[in-house]
Structure formats: structure tokens, C-alpha cells
Specification:
Blueprint: E1 10-14, E2 17-22, H1 28-41, E3 48-51, E4 54-57, E5 61-66, E6 72-74, E7 77-79, E8 82-83, H2 86-99, E9 105-111, E10 118-121, E11 134-140, E12 143-149, E13 156-161, E14 165-170, H3 173-176, E15 177-181, E16 191-197
Amino acid sequence: MMDLFSTEKTIFNLPQAELIYFPQFYTQMEASSFFHTLMEQTLWQQDQITLFGKTHKQPRLTALYAETNRPYSYSGITMTPHPFNDILLKIKQDVEAISKHTFNSVLLNLYRDGNDSNGWHADNEKELGSNPVIASVSFGATRNFKFKHRTLKQENHKLELKHGSLLLMKGEMQKYWLHQIPKTLKPTEKRINLTFRYIA
């Protein structure tokens, strides 16, 4: 990983949110090593999700790892965590060092191609407390991260999440903003995203 005190970053000036992006949190070599190890070692699953009265397979694979065995629920899905392994602990420690924040769980998402996506949502489950800090690490294909304010219609933005990048979402972002990873028609390779959080 690059020197924590000289890592290039972009701080977004947004109303009611703190968003900090580190495009090269890991070197390309480190990121590729993490990507391949996570692909092989992660216990991926595909849950059923119900939207507007219809049940279908979630459009991505997921896995939950944590320091405790406390279940985590979102969008009507309840996941039971696996214990942290060495690679996830290493990434967690790196993220904690630069964010100055402690995390005890991570939700992994595997986007297999452009058809896999994540709809508009906020990470605002009650287990996360008020104004949670969410640290999002990306490996693999670059995908668009869209985010919009709930009431300020002009605040509608897009950011490319690159291989080896880190995105920190802080402040009141989960209260006032929604975000998503939309589908894409262009040919896209696999992407793994890790969202670290603290579950109380």
C-alpha cells in the first residue's frame, strides 16, 4: 500500500455528506493479488430478494464476514457472518489506519458482469447507528458509482470506482443520500467490492 500520509485523495464538497476517494489506495499489483485471493477464498452466496411483491435472485453474489456471529439484515435479507480470514483482516487494518475508524464487519459483493448491479439504497440499517462511516474498497473492473441527494435534485453525481480504490462515506451521507451501482451494457469483467462497517 502507498504511504498513508501521501496517498492521493479527492474530497467532495457535498451538502450533508462527507465523501473521500482514494483512487490508488492499493498498487495495481497488490489489488490484483487481493482480487484473485478473494475470488478463490470467499464463501459467496446468492440470496432471494423481494421487491414490489416479486421474489427473484439478487443480481450479484454476496458474503458477510465479522468479528461476531451477530446476523445482519438489509433489504429483507438476513445474513449470518463468517469469521474474518487473514486477507480481510489485512485490508481492514489498512482501511482503519487511513480512516481513523474501527470496523467489525465487511459485506462483500461480487459483480460478475454488467448485468449484476445494486439498486438505489442507503446504508442506514439501525444496527449501523446514526451517521455511520462506510469504507468501500474495490477490486477488478471499474464500475460507475452513482449517488444523489434525497431532496436536492441538482445533487446527482457519478464516480468511477477503480481497481484498488477506497471510498469513504461519512457524516450524514446515509441519512440524506442514496447510492447505487447500475447495470451497464458495455462488456465488463468481474468486480469485487468490500464495504466495511461497524455493527453495534
